[in-house]
Amino acid sequence: MKKKFVIWTLVLFSLYGLLLGLYLFQWADFGVPDAYKGTAADPATFMTDRQLELAEDYSRYKDFLSFITEPLEWVIYLGVMVFGVSLIFKQFSERASRFKIIQIPLYVLLLQTVTTIILFPFDYISRRLSISYGISTQSFSSWMRDELIGFWVGFVIMAILITVLYWLMNKFKKRWWLYAWMLLVPFLVFMMFIQPVVIDPLYNDFTELQDKQLEEKILGLANQADIPADRVYEVNMSEKTNSMNAYVNGIGSNLRIVLWDTTLNRLKDNEVLFIMAHEIGHYVMNHLYMNLLGVIASSFVGLFLAYHLMHYTMRKWGEKWKVKDVSDIAALPVFFLLLSLLSFIASPVELAISRNAEKAADEYAIEMTEDPEAAVGSFQELTVNGLSEVNPPALVKYLRYGHPTMMERIHMLEQYQEEKQE
Ligand SMILES: [Zn+2]
């Protein structure tokens, strides 16, 4: 089985890499459709030839890397089962302690360490790529610090979740997936609540807005939508990147709007106000709560399917892998593999819903600011500074884009302007 696994992995991966390469570097059309040529949505009207070339190259490499890494994670989970590594980890953690409360986190730590080490070179290449195209400005030590924080935060969360999960699996053979989901709901709400005040500050500094003149305008806008001043934050990202961003996160009293300082520093005031209005749109239309509901609903379906698929997999391969049953910790990589596959299958739907919400926020923002010139300007600046691909190939859009493409976004603004003039 080991030999077969290695051969099949090599064959399928090479084939996949080849097709992916051909798609991204040969077949896919990055060009601008005729209908958009010469409009504000055509990058040739606001980027230099050099920038256009860089943006296209950067997108191809970045997409290639992200599409290659995704199935690699599946190969790792399958590999640790086939080669008995999972079994070794289990035996090691059992020898280290008699207590499940230590055994399970220890097993999780070993598995996470292996996946992180194997995926690390890809993370590193992605960082190098971003630096070489002038996007990331983060030093190696600062980046490494973020990686380590991510590792340990991920470990603590995972160790808690998996310990509870296996306790449920052992206690309720048939209903564990349902009870796991019932406990997951308050956990998700709790995580969303602490995210902006506990997790995010581990990585970056959050402050109130520094530029007092701009602050007045931004808060004036927030006021129009009945959003209190203490909901608006600035985050110090200029020491890490040249790209710009803003977002809404948190829940309840921790719900907040965050603007990257790069956005505040590089855009004109009325352009910042359009970006702010877009975030206000998310806030006012309760997109975060809808997102939470979506996660709750999809995790119900996901856990139900994972339960049945776990039993099927164990019946078929459990003996070969020397794994007793579903509730054996050595079967955890299978559970991770199934969840990852399921979320991959669900992602086009999730992304389509997200693109719709983003479109609604853009529409809200342009109605609120009524300044299409600033709106178009802000999107063009965002594109140039992040070297974004204005019109990505279809596969990239449907499998990766949580926002409409910049071409669609700018085109919508232009249409708004035309309608207004009529
Ligand atoms: Zn948005």
The dominant shape is: globular
Helix content: over 70%
Number of helices: 14
- Counting DSSP E segments of at least 2 residues, the number of strands comes to 4
Multimeric state of these chains?
A: single chain
Largest sheet strand order:
1-2-4-3
The percent range for strand residues is under 5%
The major β-sheet equals:
4 strands, mixed
N→C terminal distance: 69 Å
Order of helices and strands: HHHHHHEHEEEHHHHHHH
* Helix vs. strand class: mainly alpha
Ligands (ions, cofactors included): zinc ion
**What's the gyration radius in Å?**
24 Å
Residue ranges: pLDDT <50 for 5 or more in a row?
none
State mean pLDDT (0 to 100 scale): 94
Could you characterize what this model shows?
With 422 residues, the chain is mainly α. The chain is 73% helix and 4% strand. A four-stranded mixed sheet has the order 1-2-4-3, sandwiched between helices. A hairpin with a 6-residue loop joins strand 3 (246-249) and strand 4 (256-260). The mean pLDDT is 94. The structure holds zinc ion (ZN). Residues 278, 282, 358, 361 line the site of zinc ion.
Characteristic key phrases:
422 residues; mainly alpha; four-stranded mixed beta sheet; 73% helix; globular; binds zinc ion
Secondary structure: elements and pairs:
Blueprint: H1 2-27, H2 49-82, H3 85-96, H4 100-132, H5 140-171, H6 176-203, E1 206-207, H7 212-224, E2 232-235, E3 246-249, E4 256-260, H8 261-266, H9 269-284, H10 287-317, H11 332-369, H12 372-386, H13 394-400, H14 406-421
Parallel strand pairs: 2-4
Antiparallel strand pairs: 1-2, 3-4
Helix pairs in contact: 1-2, 2-4, 2-11, 3-4, 4-5, 5-6, 6-10, 7-9, 9-11, 9-12, 10-11, 11-14, 12-14
